[in-house]
Specification:
The protein is mainly alpha-helical and about 270 residues long. It contains 15 helices and no strands. The longest helix has 18 residues.
């Protein structure tokens, strides 16, 4: 999950003010936590609260997202999600926006099987993004994280994602030349997947995702969440992003990682290429 937060914070200053390069200062005083990190941690809290009872997960996700969303990252939320946060009777609203995919990484770390991970992703997604494309985006990110956690090489992950979720047949160089302002799952998740699949580290994945333009923080959050599962996060990079989180958010991250330990960064030197 820390990979998603790194991507979100690094990408926050480039959202709709894009830099198509990769040579930039990763964290500056202009960077900040957005809804991507807040909702990622809200889902992590829901996973912790629901425990092994999957039937409780959707209700817990509604409660935690609404509580966290009302407290943090005000002004970052899309119009329909913002109304959902404050509605007396929150109901799903048919969204296929990329919010479903940027917040779902906790499911892939907490699940015992791929099927369990996808079930969890569906449960935390349908409470808002009940459109099939919203669910597909959340599933694809969850699956990519799961496959990476199992040690699969990039081309195996590419093949499995392409078979079940999205065709991945464009390179990053090709994608950079396109208009990437589409914020739907189908318009952004394949881009984040490609940035992850062509990367050599979490930082590299984040930089490459940001270089695609468009919704930079969300693209980088998704790419970072997937890259973490393959490479791990170096202690120095982790230390640089944690000061952007308020203490209650840090505590959620700490509790989740104690329950579901992250990948040691040194694993990257032993990965298949």
């Amino acid at each position: 999950m820390i990979g998603a937060i790194i991507g979100d914070v690094a990408g926050s200053r480039f959202e709709w003010k894009n830099d198509k390069g990769t040579d930039f200062e990763l964290f500056t005083s202009e960077c900040h936590v957005t809804d991507d990190s807040v909702m990622t941690l809200a889902i992590a809290q829901a996973v912790l609260e629901s425990g092994s009872c999957r039937e409780r997960l959707s209700a817990c996700a509604v409660d935690t997202m609404r509580a966290f969303g009302r407290h943090w990252a005000g002004g970052c939320y899309g119009g329909r999600f913002a109304r959902w946060l404050h509605s007396e009777h929150p109901e799903p609203y048919g969204s296929y926006g990329n919010g479903s995919a940027m917040r779902v990484s906790a499911c892939a770390w907490a699940a015992e099987t791929l099927e369990d991970a996808l079930d969890m992703a569906g449960r935390v997604t349908v409470v808002t993004h009940d459109h099939p494309e919203g669910i597909r985006g959340a599933e694809a990110v969850t699956a990519a994280i799961w496959f990476a956690r199992q040690g699969n090489a990039p081309e195996i992950i590419r093949k499995r994602i392409s078979e079940s979720w999205y065709r991945l047949d464009a390179t990053l160089d090709e994608l950079r030349r396109r208009d990437n302002t589409d914020v739907s799952c189908q318009g952004t998740v394949p881009l984040a997947l490609e940035a992850f699949l062509e990367s050599e580290s979490v930082e590299d994945a984040v930089r490459k995702a940001i270089s695609l333009g468009g919704d930079s923080d969300t693209l980088a959050a998704m790419a970072g969440s997937m890259a973490e599962a393959r490479f791990g996060v170096p202690a120095e990079l982790r230390a640089r992003v944690l000061p952007y989180l308020d203490r209650p958010l840090l505590e959620v991250l700490d509790r989740f990682e104690r329950r579901y330990p992250p990948l040691p960064a040194e694993r990257s030197s032993r990965l298949p290429r």
